[in-house]
Amino acid sequence: MPAVITVQTGNARGSGFFVGPDTILTNVHVVGNHAGVTIRHSDGTVTNARVESTSTAYDIAVLKTSTPLPNQPTIPLGTINTARIGQEIIVIGTPLGFLQNTVSRGIISGLREVDGSTLLQTDAAINPGNSGGPVLDRNGTALGIVKSGYSGRDGLSFAVAIDHAQAVLEGRSAPPVAVSATPSPYKALSPAVMSPTDQLRQDGSHAFEQAIDRLARQADALDQRWRSFRRGCYRGPIGGSFDREWFALYDERAMQGVVARGCDTSFSEIRRQADEIHAGILEADEAARRANVYPGERRAALGRQRLDFSGWSR
To answer: Helices 264-290 and 295-304, interaxial angle, to 10°?
Structure first.
């Protein structure tokens, strides 16, 4: 679900979800004392967000993205007052800090009052890294925000009522919620801390995206030079379809025309620039592979910059 994201602070990760084009809900214990966090979208895109407000009492933090998207999917907010014991719910988040957009299903096992907060108790599978993710009803409406688990027990986890989040968003006191007051001991789920392997993968992914961004700028400049070359120096068709037409240089069947007389120098320069980009992509991809960056993530990064081309490996 593209409305659910991973929240990262340092080497720790939790979950969060969009409730407005630029507004994210998560836990205070996910963002800690950080004023800004990194968010990773379901498509692998990484952006930044600032911590707009927090409520320590309810363990709710509101984030604002630095680059809001007008078409950003969001999750509507419901109310715990509509929740019923035994009702089916689903939880979405990033358990263990890297299994992004994992969906687990369970039921509402109880509604509890703990330290002044209304908590939704569930048996859905929840692990460190799920903190801050949404608890949804069958209509996709948020009923709670994953918060805690019972110490030493599986299948016994809690989410803070979404009513408290609504109050934090609106800057008002929490509304009364009609449930019985039954205290229950619990402990906050820690944000997932990455293993050395996961840290290597994250660093490799970041380095790969930076390298591809730089190569994309070179490719954009070559696009302009190629169009000029095509108008004045190339005679004949180019077979096939390419995201960038100069990719045809790496497909011997595509270049079906001839280079006009006097244009050999221009053609050689274009080929040199293309080879430089080609070599840079292969080098960046190999470094990412050694860092265990997933092939799909590498290909997605190339695709976003119109640099995904099967001919690179020829």
So the answer is: 150
- Active-site annotation, residues: 29, 59, 131
Distance from C-alpha of 39 to C-alpha of 305, rounded to nearest angstrom: 20
Backbone angles phi, psi at 150, to 5 degrees: -75, 130
Instruction: Please answer whether residues 118 and 177 qualify as being in contact, where contact means their C-beta atoms are separated by less than 8 angstroms.
Output: yes
pLDDT tens by residue, 215-255: 999 999 999 999 999 999 999 899 888 999 999 999 888 98
* Domain span holding position 186: 80-192
How far, in Å, CA of 23 to CA of 18, rounded? 6
Domain at 33, CATH number: 2.40.10.10
**Do 172 and 210 belong together in one domain?**
no
Which string of b and e fits 224-240 if b means at least 16 CB within 10 Å?
eebeebeeebbeeebee
Same domain, 182 and 236: no
Q: Are 183 and 201 within one domain?
A: no
End-to-end CA separation in angstroms for the chain: 36
